[in-house]
Structures are given as C-alpha cells and as structure tokens.
Design a protein that fits this description.
CATH architecture: 3-Layer(aba) Sandwich
Strand content: 15-25%
Number of helices: 17
Helix content: 40-55%
Largest sheet: 6 strands, mixed
Strand order of the largest sheet: 4-3-5-6-11-10
Shape: globular
Structural class: alpha/beta
Oligomer: single chain
CATH class: Alpha Beta
Radius of gyration: 21 Å
Mean pLDDT: 92
Number of strands: 11
Low-confidence stretches: none
CATH topology: Rossmann fold
C-alpha cells in the first residue's frame, strides 16, 4: 500500500460521515447508564482528540484503564533505572517518553543533564548495536511495556546472546493486560461494566484469555482499534451486549486481530520470558501480571547485573494516578491536576506519558 492509499484508508476510519451514524445507533440502543473502560492509553488519547466522549449520549461514561506502559512502570523501577544510568560505565537506552517520568527525586533527563550517557532509541535492536560498537561500556535498555513491546525486547536479548555480547542487558518492567482486568473487576470498588480491549495487544497475543474473564465477571469485552470509527463501533457492540444482558468477547478489529494472535511473536516471548508477580505504579502488586527473563538468561538481567534489586520507594500521597487507572476517578478529580501537576512539572507518569489519561485531559482541555 503506497502513501496515498494508506492516507485514504486511514481517513476512512476518521470520517465524520462514517462515525456519526454509529453514534446515532448508540443513542437509539442505549436505555440506561453504562460505564465502559477503554484499556489502552492510546485509545484514551484518540477518544479525547476526536471528541468522541462529547459525542456519545450521556448514558455512556467512559473511564480510563491502566493500559499506559509508562504510567504503570513502578516507581522503584524508575529509581533502579536512575541508579544504573548514573554509572559512568553505562550507556542507558530508553524510549523518549520515559525520560520525563519522575522517580523519587529526579528523572532520566536530569541524569543526562548531569553527564550520564542516556540515549533515546527507537528499537531495542538499536541498543544491541550500541553494545556491539562500545565493548568497553555496559549498554542497558529499559524494557517497559505490555504484550505489544515484549517480542522485540525478547528478541534483543536472544540476538545479543547469539552475538556473544556480554555488555548488553535489559531492565525489565513488562506487564500483562488480562491479570490487570482481573484486578479491576475483582475490586470491591469496581465500576466497570464493559471493556474495550486493546487491539495492538490482541494483535500479538490474540484474545483467547478473555472469554473466561467475561464469563467470570459477567462483562462484555470488545477488542477495539484506535481510530474513531474503530472506537465507536466497539462501544456500540459493547452497549448492545450490555442492553441484552450478554457477556461475550467480540472482535471489532478483525483487519488486524485474530483469536490466536501472532504465533511467531508469542514464541519469541516464551523463549525469553516467564510470568511473575509485578508491582504496578499507583495500583500495587498484581499476581502473575508481569514477565521477567528466564533464569538461563539472567546474565542479561540488568537488575541482577547491577545489584539494584533492594531499592524500595514510596508513592506520592498527592497523586491519584492509581485510582484514575482503575476507573475510580477521572484526572480532573485530582486536586493537583493542572496546578501542582502539569506536563512541565508532573507528579505522576500519567501527566507526562504520551498515552497517559492526565496528559490527554490536559492537552485536550477536558474539565469533566
């Protein structure tokens, strides 16, 4: 598909003429209030950017889930990253949106300003290349993310091992969506009655794990994309189920998602990672919600290599990011929103991340 065709294809999914009839069908279908959570921060930003939350009927309330990888990276992992990046023998590599995320006292930008070798890369394979080019340095990649980024991060370790590189490692902070859904739905304060599942996660992993969740908690789950038409179609499918009292898993993103996902990508993950308990920033420990490197790959585990496992931290008592990411509150419910907490001076990761709910509300001027 050439650039012109791709642009036309994308515009079709952003067309107001195609979105409006779906919105009207939602209005005709809904008869009572429903609370629906979109899991992914990318979906949140699309909803805010295109004003979909303002076009929906008042009966539909959208709440914003924990599907922002930067936002849920635990504070102690940020502090571990800072400790490693401060070392003179280290080149610390990260995606750009992690550099502004506040640790206990500073961020990676501050480390770089102080002379630390902190580099922004676009792929973990860029970090592997740096390790090959700088044999006198330890190169560390900050491997954060959900199932979407796990395959390339796993592949970087497998490639480094095949190349015999002993100066490459990753600081792992991988989290998984299904256990987070269990944690949200199992909370006594849960408000979520239906889910829009993240299409890119399901592109990798499929959605075989979701039917037991839908059945156990009696909530519909709709796999949804990120363009306006994708999102409103997903909301319509979810509302139809809610109104009918059904709780199935439906795929509103069939052009990219299949039930089994991407077998090759899943195989790469299994070669490098095993599941583990993981602490989520602002939320706490969720059992079996993360991945860590397999024991046979421990030489590539930066947490072990640099002995930073004992670093412990305390969350800010002001930031309510955890409550926002569980759907209990909205960003504007935070007393620090837009005042003590802004993109220039963030108290929490959701205000600085490109997928954070707080940054979406701030950027697109939502007050409710």
């Amino acid at each position: 598909m050439n650039d012109a065709a791709l642009t036309q294809f994308t515009q079709e999914f952003r067309s107001a003429e195609r979105v409006k009839p779906v919105i009207e069908e939602i209005r005709r279908t809904v008869t009572r209030p429903w609370t629906i959570m979109e899991i992914c921060g990318g979906q949140t930003h699309s909803i805010m950017q295109y004003g979909l939350d303002q076009l929906l009927p008042p009966e539909i309330e959208l709440v914003h889930g924990p599907g922002c990888p930067v936002c849920v990276t635990p504070l102690e992992l940020i502090d571990k990253a800072l400790a490693i990046a401060s070392r003179p023998d280290v080149i610390f590599c990260s995606y750009g949106d992690m550099l502004r995320v506040p640790g206990s006292r500073q961020d990676l930008f501050s480390i770089r300003a102080q002379g630390g070798q902190v580099k922004v890369v676009y792929s973990p394979l860029d970090a592997v290349r740096l390790a090959k080019e700088n044999p006198d340095k330890q190169v560390v990649f900050f491997a954060i993310g959900f199932e979407t980024t796990a395959p390339p991060n796993a592949l970087s370790v497998l490639q480094a091992k095949a190349m015999g590189l002993t100066n490459y490692s990753i600081l792992v902070s991988h989290v998984r969506v299904p256990p987070a859904m269990h944690a949200i739905l199992g909370s006594p304060h849960n408000r979520v009655q239906g889910f829009l599942a993240a299409g890119h996660v399901c592109t990798v992993m499929g959605y075989e794990e979701y039917p037991p969740i839908a059945s156990q908690y009696r909530v519909p789950i709709v796999v949804t994309g990120f363009e306006p038409l994708d999102l409103v179609q997903g909301i319509l499918m979810c509302v139809r189920q809610l109104e009918a009292g059904t709780y199935d898993v439906e795929n509103a993103y069939p052009r990219l998602v299949t039930r089994e996902g991407n077998p090759a990508a899943r195989q790469i993950i299994e070669r490098a990672f095993i599941t583990c308990d993981r602490n989520w920033r602002g939320i706490g420990m969720i059992p079996d919600s993360g991945w860590k490197l397999r024991p046979e790959l421990s030489d590539f585990d930066a947490e072990i290599k640099f002995q930073v496992g004992d670093i412990q931290t305390r969350e800010s008592e002001v930031c309510i990011a955890g409550q926002i990411m569980q759907g209990f509150k909205k960003p504007v419910d935070c007393p620090a929103f837009g005042t003590a907490c802004s993109p220039q001076n963030p108290l929490g990761a959701p205000m600085v991340s490109s997928e954070g709910a707080c940054s979406a509300y701030f950027r697109f001027a939502r007050q409710s």
